[in-house]
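Have a close read of this protein, sequence plus structure tokens, and explain what the tokens say about the fold. Thanks in advance:
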Amino acid sequence: MKLSALVDLLASRGLRLLPGSHPVPVELYVELPDASLARFTARGRTLRLRHYSPDALTSVVIAAECGCGDHHPQTGPDRVTLSAFATPLSEHVLDGELLFGWTAHEAGSLRLADAVPHFFTLLPLLAAERTLAVVA
């Protein structure tokens, strides 16, 4: 699975893949329908989905290599990223050691196509939280 295919899959569910997402190791930034952010990572033996408020995103300007302005503009492109000060509203984890018997870094070795089903396993937990928050 390529990121372009994932973009289409997410869009069919009302979700948007954000820049900064990577297929290897898997790290996905997904905008949810309420504009909040989900960050899914596969590292070590852990699959983790963190939920952030919409203001957790920030924009960073990447400086040109030489910065002289002769060869490149003095400032480079903007990159959308998670703020260094962002605190997750919630976190949900699948422990690969307990669930699958992983002993090393199997989560970090997952291909995108193998990791995405785990993302969709954890995603309903965020929807349930948001529903509870609205009711409360």
Notes: The beta strands are 16-17, 22-23, 26-31, 37-43, 46-52, 57-63, 75-82, 90-95. The mean pLDDT is 84. The two ends are 39 Å apart (CA to CA).
